Amino acid sequence: MRKRLLAARRALEAETRARWDRALCDHVLAWQLQNKCDVLGVYWPLRDEPDLHPAYAELARRGVRLLLPVVVRRDAALEFAEWDIGEAMVKDAMGVAVPAELRMAPYPPALLVPCLGYNAHRYRLGYGGGFYDRTLAREPRPATVGVAYSITRADFPDDSHDVALDAVLTEAG
After folding, report:
1. Under the phi-then-psi rule, with left for phi > 0, alpha for psi from -120 to 50, and beta for the rest, what region is 47?
2. How far is residue 134's CA from residue 78's CA, in Å, rounded to a whole number?
3. Closest by alpha carbon to 171, among 24, 32, 5?
4. For the chain, where are the alpha helices, taking DSSP H only?
5. What's the pLDDT tens digit per position in 21-43?
């Protein structure tokens, strides 16, 4: 299923991807206004994930503190570092962009969570590393908003270790 979903995402035409990313940015910004979130864990897109950088720039303009996930150990929950738009970035051991100067921050009260896939019950399918599963199992649990393209909605069972997201945003809403 992961291979199929990755292939579907990769096959999106550039124009469609750009249009869908703009729509997703609008939905993320509307969600932030509605939920009055002033600290937000975001993600740096990889493997053809939706690119929300325009929304991040607007969120920063609004005064929202943005935090990026940092892998500290392969078997641990994610930690988070302060991130300012435009600052120098480096790739970590997992190939994910992180700020060159890590300024670790407390666990955020809300997270945007990239989804390789999602189901009707708001459970996400990731890449299989379990980083977000471990992160979402921590207390206090943050507000969670999955970010995905609607073409990645799939039928898969909910596993006992999975944590349902509070919402899933797609280009459609």
Report:
1. left
2. 8
3. 24
4. 2-10, 14-35, 53-61, 131-136
5. 999 999 999 999 999 999 999 99
